Predict the 3D structure of the following.
Amino acid sequence: MADAESVGQDASYDLVCFFDCFHDMAVAGKAAKNACRILKQGGMVMLIEMMGPYDDSVSAHLALPSTAMLTCFSCHFCTPSGMCDSGDALGTVVPTSKHEKLFVDAAGFKSLDSLESGLNEIGFRLLLAKK
């Protein structure tokens, strides 16, 4: 059995998907680096995450109507899960700027874009990281 840090062979995939799970991972940063390793040049990561602001500021978080409910979930489920084994502890409402740091700055992706989609209407966002 493989884990998020070691699954896959170098440059062998076109697409890696994280569906409402990346923020729960104790090894989120390592999973992002591994995704970059196993993707072919031009490959992409598709993340579906809960709606969050771009900036990690109190005012940006409070501008979202779902913040109170999602922060409650985060305190009780997502953040403790992400803290396992000294993990990244991202929490439910990860700001897009944090995803950029993990995928572009640390893992080596060229870009991370937040795309408008029907998911926005149900409280999620679609993010694409391009290698």
Remarks:
- The domain at 13-130 is CATH 3.40.50.150 (Rossmann fold).
- The mean pLDDT is 92.
- The chain has one domain: 13-130.
